[in-house]
Amino acid sequence: MPHRPPSYALPPVELLDEVDSTNNEAHRRAAAGTRGPIWIATRRQTAGKGRSGRTWVEASHGNVAATLLFVPGHAPARLPELSLVAGVATFDAVAECLGGSEAGRAELKWPNDVLIDGAKVSGILIESGNYGAETVSLIGIGINVATAPNVTDRAVTHLAAHGFARDASAVLDLLVARMAHWLSIWSEDDGFAAIRTAWGARAIPIGRSLEIKTKEGPVAGAFAGLDTDGALLMDLPAAGRRRFTFGDVTVLPAGRA
Question: What CATH code is carried by the domain that includes residue 230?
Answer without folding.
Answer: 2.30.30.100
